[in-house]
Amino acid sequence: MKHLLTTQDMSKDDAILLLDTSAQMAATQSRENKKLPTLRGRTVVNLFYEDSTRTRISFETAAKRLSADVINFSAKGSSVSKGESLKDTALTLHAMGADAVVVRHSASGAAHQLAHAGWLDAGVLNAGDGMHQHPTQALLDAFTIRRHLVGHVGDDGRGTDTSVGADLAGLRIAIVGDVLHSRVARSNVYLLHTLGAEVTLVAPPTLVPVGVETWPCRVSYHLDETLERWQPDAVMMLRVQRERMSGGSGAFFPSPMEYSRKFGFDARRLAVLPDHAIVMHPGPMNRGLEISAAAADHPRSVIVEQVANGVAVRMAALYLLLSGTDSGDSGASTQQTSTDERNVL
Amino acid sequence: MNPGTRMPESSESPNSTPGTAAERTVLGEADIARALTRIAHEIVERNKGAADLLLLGIPTRGVQLARRLAERLAQIEPTFSGEHGTLDVTMYRDDLRRQPTRAVGQTVLPGSLDGTIDDKVVVLVDDVLFSGRTIRAALDALNDLGRPRVVQLAALVDRGHRELPIRADYVGKNLPTSRSERVRVRLADVDGGADAVVISEAAPTTSAPTTSPAPASTERGAR
User: Fold this and answer.
1) Among A27, A319, A334, beta carbon nearest to B107
2) Is the Cβ pair A32, B116 closer than 8 Å?
3) Residues of A in contact with B102 (CB under 8 A)
4) Which residues in chain A show pLDDT less than 70?
5) How far apart (Å, rounded) are the C-alpha atoms in residues B200 and B182?
């Protein structure tokens, strides 16, 4: 694995390797000493052209837990505000010897461009590009789902994860809300489908993107009907991205109250779900809009655990991208050899 | 030690080295069983019992060897709790950048320990002791788990060619080898078939050790 840009063309083997590695990383994060020496001497640059709190901090934490050096670059207060192009920034990072670049950009495809334009030879991790992809978020969602619904880790997030090597076959996941603007939804639809889960998108017609019929999922315009008849194992609420809605929240639905009444998740809708079902949200939440406080703070909500799992998943992604020779070998070709072979090879 | 149940070379077939490489079985099933029993007795003797003892196997085959040693120790010392675990050293290795990406394995401590190995007598268990680099990584990994009172090392086979100042406290068999040879431990519960320790010439396709320049030419010379 050289780059992590999208979940759309990720193989099932690579996805499961990432989840299994995440499980081992998560296990080290319950220790007193959380730091591992694995990436000592490597440099990870956080290149953020869009505002972000949790993703940037999560990547920074992950890199530091693996002993990599972290350089944070945000567009505000940098040469970008003087008009520097992505290319020139990339060339600068190359000259400084970055081993991995974590990039978030408002333009869809920015990460792909950075990885394939030949500007730098570092591994590129997409931390969100426009309305396209956010692969580590999808991986941490899949990891959280697998831990709870396949590995049967307890409600408090503790206990042994027995789901190593497993996929998500047969699980039903409902993704609800602002699908149109959501890179999280796009990344999740493809990854969850690859892992064998069934996905239904639930949104008002105005927030369903053109071309959704080519995605490997179903689409529903009715939240209550989906919850009652389809009985999803996990409900993933999406943030209403008002900053991407021109004309305020009025442009895509009549009023926030009406949206909340029809598509908001609350304790009443939670009660309809099967007992094992979990509630997820990628954050940051609009409490009272797409999710009520009662649902967000419910014992079956795993929203805080998603954040903790995000660090483990990003550690796994950094490890798989930065360890190994630079011969471009695929991550799925890794295998356990005997100690003797390990020493000889 | 006695070569014991030495097998004819032709009968050794499952997942063996490819090509024309000749194979020699140096330890058979009974030899391995005797060696483990002796090591178990030595561990009890050296530590004057089995108090605070914790066996940690290094994946892949060290894990099974640790389990077998724990079974024997439980027979010898009724006070021994049978505690054994797994110590994955992948993320502590010094050759991560020179190798294809390795999958990270699981580190499992017995649940009774509550995640710490403080003040335990830890015996690391590995199948083959060679350069010593795996053990160095294991010592670093242990350091992150806590502060054991003592750390000891048990290896089924010591084949020499150490690159670090590391030695084993308990050795099943000292096996003088050339660097170009490969020593493989096969265990019934990992590889199938009977337990065996096998020496073979390195297959021609195998890349030469990157850690030392000599063996590549040695190997070619031998052919």
Assistant:
1) A27
2) yes
3) 323-324, 334, 336
4) 154-160, 246-250, 325-345
5) 5
Contact B60/A at CB under 8 A: yes
Domain count across chain B: 1
B215 found inside a domain? no
Beta carbons of A37 and B209 less than 8 Å apart: no
Does residue B162 lie within any of the structural domains?
yes
Which residues span the domain enclosing B45? 26-178
Test A339 with B126 for CB contact under 8 angstroms: yes
Tokens of A279: 């509630």
Contacts of B61 in chain A (CB under 8 A): 338-339
Domains of chain A: 12-133+306-327 (3.40.50.1370), 135-303 (3.40.50.1370)
Residue A109: helix, strand or coil by DSSP?
coil
pLDDT value at residue A160: 65
Contact yes or no for A24 and B128 at CB 8 A = no
Contact at CB, B92 and A36, closer than 8 angstroms: yes
pLDDT at A258: 92
Tell me whether residue B88 is in a domain: yes
Q: Is residue B32 part of a domain?
A: yes
CATH number at residue B136: 3.40.50.2020
Contact A68, A43 (CB under 8 A): yes
pTM metric for this prediction:
0.85
Query: Is this prediction's ipTM beyond 0.95?
Result: no
Instruction: Report how far apart, in Å, the C-alpha atoms of B80 and of each of A157, A178, B52, B124 are.
Output: 32, 59, 8, 17
A103's enclosing H/E stretch is: strand A100-105
